[in-house]
Write a structure and sequence with these properties.
The protein is 39% helix and 17% strand. It is α/β, with parallel strands linked by helices. The structure holds ligand PBG.
């Protein structure tokens, strides 16, 4: 039978495929999550091969390398010694703490690199939860008050964007108000709008020793079974003044990325989390998967689903590959 329409014509050559390609990855859209600790040595993470917990100096060197590779932004995750943790997460508010010091150093050395900070209490909280625990419950409004102060500390240190990853109700609006009142009207909010209670965060919590001491995070992070609920969270964060929104994890939640993309005019980020990274890394290590091809395909899939920005531990490696490709 004659086929009047032959879609294969558009796939005939590399040149034609290039013409009709609908999604392109670029280094500019990559956000590099970086671990940092207050130690003079850099510490390669056994539980996340290829990822390092940096000393403050190591962080500067690595951020400079990432910047030169064309990566748009870094986001910082601190590991704090146990002795600095308490139930009030006081260290989160220390203007001379690890994160504010690193933000200042990064903005001084690399003013053009966008520096994003994580707003949540889990690295500082002896209970290991993103919010304050009172009588066995993660309390919402008292936590939000502390998150606002944490965001102000980050903004005062020079953070370009603060990223609340805690999933408390109402935090985006309160943080926005706090920033405006303190003359930080240029500091953006990247909200983790749809952050799921995911088992794929396991290696991250190992890297920071930040797993909850008791229970899990299911009373604040979303149920992996729900997608319409992501749109409820999205609508609230938009109304409260988020500048950008995020879906996390990315790969197992591409339907959510696409639904959020369709429902908002704001930029959408997706976070390829530690467990997603580790699956690719492990399969590459055994030789079961071609690392370069599968990693770039995983990132392309996230972008195709609708993410403008992608947080990935592969950021510098992927950036290198993207340069080699062209
Ligand atoms: C906590 C936070 C987590 C991640 C980023 N921020 C872990 C959690 O919610 O327990 C996970 C990132 C990853 O797994 O790569 N505020």
């Amino acid at each position: 039978m004659e086929l009047p329409i032959r879609p294969r014509r558009n796939r005939r050559s590399a040149a034609i495929r290039g013409l009709v390609r609908q999604t392109r990855l670029s280094t500019e859209q990559l956000i590099y999550p970086m671990f940092v600790h207050d130690d003079v040595k850099d510490h390669p993470l056994e539980s996340l091969p290829g990822v390092t917990r940096w000393s403050p100096d190591g962080l500067l060197r690595e951020a400079e390398r990432a910047h030169k590779l064309g990566i748009g932004a870094v986001v910082l995750f601190p590991k704090i010694p146990d002795r600095s943790k308490n139930p009030d997460a006081d260290e989160a508010l220390n203007p001379e703490g690890l994160v504010p010091n690193c933000v200042r150093a990064l903005k001084r050395a690399l003013p053009e690199l966008c520096v994003i900070t994580d707003v949540a209490l889990d690295p500082y909280n002896s209970d290991g939860h993103d919010g304050l625990v009172r009588n066995g419950q993660v309390v919402n409004d008292d936590t939000v008050a502390v998150l606002c102060r944490q965001a102000l500390v980050h903004a005062a240190a020079g953070a370009d964007i603060v990223a609340p990853s805690d999933m408390m109700d109402g935090r985006v609006g309160e943080i926005r108000n706090a920033l405006e009142a303190a003359d930080h009207d240029q500091v953006g909010i990247l909200s983790y709008s749809a952050k799921y209670a995911s088992a794929f965060y396991g290696p991250f919590r190992g890297a920071l020793d930040s797993a909850p001491r008791d229970g899990d995070k299911k009373t604040y992070q979303m149920d992996p079974a729900n997608s319409r609920e992501a749109l409820v969270e999205l609508a609230l964060d938009e109304a409260e003044g988020a500048d950008m929104v995020m879906v996390k994890p990315a790969g197992p939640y591409l339907d959510v990325v696409a639904a959020v993309r369709a429902a908002t005019r704001l930029p959408v980020a997706a976070y390829q989390v530690s467990g997603e990274y580790l699956m690719l890394k492990a399969a590459a290590k055994t030789g079961w998967l071609d690392e370069r091809a599968t990693v770039l395909e995983s990132l392309l899939g996230i972008a195709r689903a609708g993410a403008d920005m992608i947080l990935t531990y592969y950021a510098p490696v992927a950036a290198q590959w993207l340069h080699e490709k062209t």
